[in-house]
């Protein structure tokens, strides 16, 4: 009887320890899901900083989302490499001109974000609205590659394009 009780107790202990191992796998999956969602959110925040920097003419905020060796293609034959070249280009564009009073925004349903480990993609449209006239201005699209650089999500490559207008 004592022997049966000891063997039964050993099986219960073994079952509990194995159940604990299975629980850690579920916990690991849960942690992966939380990390994935956090990464998607952080990449989405790049879009917000992009538009806020443009709208407020805050070049430092705008440049804070670019990796040091990032590239930006504004059109055929117009690729800028590194933060200094990208900064110089953007300072000469209409959104940063003192006489321009544009707000830059993206309809939420036109944002697409992907993540795979330490890399991802970000697509969004830039809808520019003149604060004084309330008229819409050019609409453009951004197709970007992003990466985690020193623990922070940053744009590594951005290509500007014409937006495809869809509802």
What does this 3D model show about the protein?
This protein has 167 residues and is α+β, with helices and mostly antiparallel strands. It has one domain: Nuclear Transport Factor 2, Chain: A. It has three helices and seven strands, in the order H-H-E-E-H-E-E-E-E-E. Strands 1, 2, 3, 4, 5, 6 and 7 form a seven-stranded mixed β-sheet that branches. A hairpin with a 2-residue loop joins strand 1 and strand 2.
Lay out the secondary structure.
Blueprint: H1 2-55, H2 59-63, E1 66-75, E2 78-81, H3 82-91, E3 102-105, E4 112-116, E5 119-130, E6 136-149, E7 152-162
Parallel strand pairs: 1-7
Antiparallel strand pairs: 1-2, 3-5, 4-5, 5-6, 6-7
Sum up the structure in keywords.
167 residues; Nuclear Transport Factor 2, Chain: A; seven-stranded mixed sheet; single chain; alpha+beta
